What we know:
Blueprint: E1 10-14, H1 19-29, E2 36-41, H2 44-52, E3 56-59, H3 66-79, E4 85-88, H4 104-134, E5 139-143, H5 157-176, E6 182-184, E7 186-188, H6 203-206, H7 213-226, E8 230-232, H8 234-263
Parallel strand pairs: 1-2, 1-4, 2-3, 4-5, 5-6, 7-8
Helix pairs in contact: 1-7, 3-4, 4-5, 5-8
The structure holds NADP nicotinamide-adenine-dinucleotide phosphate (NAP).
Amino acid sequence: MAPSIDKSKCVLVTGATSGIGRALALAIAALPSHPKVIGVGRRKDRLAGLKDAGIDAEEFDVNADRVKTKDFVEEMIQKYPEIDTLVLAAGVQREVNFKKQVDLDAIATELHVNYFSILAMISFFMPHFMTKSASGQPCLIAPVTSGLAYIPAPWIANYSASKAALHSLCSSLRVQLEDTTIGVIEISPPLVESELHDAEGTTEALSKFWMPLSEYIKETIEGFQRGDSVVCNGMAKNAYEQFEKPKEQMVSEMAKRAATHSKK
Ligand SMILES: NC(=O)c1ccc[n+]([C@@H]2O[C@H](COP(=O)([O-])OP(=O)(O)OC[C@H]3O[C@@H](n4cnc5c(N)ncnc54)[C@H](OP(=O)(O)O)[C@@H]3O)[C@@H](O)[C@H]2O)c1
């Protein structure tokens, strides 16, 4: 189990300008514990809307190089030293067809936004969280993956692969941090109402099947409050429980075996 979101004092949410990230930012700010929430995104008008809703807003393009990402993280820690929780929801989704021309620049950007930028941000926040952990303060890292991390959708092959990588990272990170007060919660949505599919023009078709955002957020906040290691719903939950949950124990056992061998 991870610490409950009810213990969080200050939560930084990426992807907070629309869809799941925005709704989570608003719902977390409205918790009875009233944590401070900082919403991050690129669109200025949406950031202004967050401010109007009482949420601090910071502009940042997560498709930045590692120097800019480090500078941003350091700026955030200096401005908001209370940050103890990351909800990493920024993400993009692009179709790819290997029988036609593959746009490698678009693929690289998708992988960077959905995977590397999250890994980099976690790495740069880690010393700050380790200091909090040393004084017994709970911290949370909550990357947003997808049910497609467990069963890939072939027409969005690179998106699915990026989410599978992020899911794998969550499992390893959780085990690495087992002896700290830093919890890792993987947020794994099914198809949910959002703007994610606007770029491909598939929103109208998908809207017939998606989970309404309000329903999704209610269930997700409940999982966050319980401190579930993986918060997943609907089809994502079915896939996680059938294919991935049985692996979690193995990840932990493999780490223990490796630790035993390294002591020999
Ligand atoms: N909706 C679904 O069906 C679904 C299912 C499974 C997983 N997910 C995941 O849930 C997360 C949220 O997606 P959503 O469905 O809520 O989509 P969305 O409405 O399109 O939101 C995506 C968010 O990511 C931000 N973002 C994208 N590129 C960025 C960049 N380069 N720099 C900074 N921010 C960037 C956007 O902000 P700006 O444009 O303002 O920068 C926006 O706030 C994503 O990780 C997505 O993969 C969604």
